[in-house]
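step: validate -> pass
step: tokenize input -> pass
step: predict -> running
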Amino acid sequence: MGYSSPKLSSPELLEIQDPLRQVSVFANRGTLAQPQNLLDLQGNVEVTGLRDRARLTTDRLLWNTQNQRIEARGNVNYIQESPAFKLRGPKALGRLEEQTLRIDGPDVVTEIVP
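step: predict -> pass
step: emit ->
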């Protein structure tokens, strides 16, 4: 018999609060794989930064809770208030702790609001 890593999953709407990083996350469902510390969130995923009021929405978010790296896949939208701008694209990579995000793929749109 092979060993499989433990997983926690929620087939229902879930909310995650990270007060240390001042981030809240909502998703339709998700799975946490241990010991990889990989959180796989799917369906109407929304990440909101409480400190800077930035918002990321996507179809799927892979979040390594140990190193805080994220990968967003599908219908990625990022909105930030100060300085005001919007980004849209099919895929994004970033780090929550550093508040960095890079959107990749064809048809990436950037809007800067004066």
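step: describe -> The first strand starts at residue 7 and ends at 10.
step: cleanup -> pass
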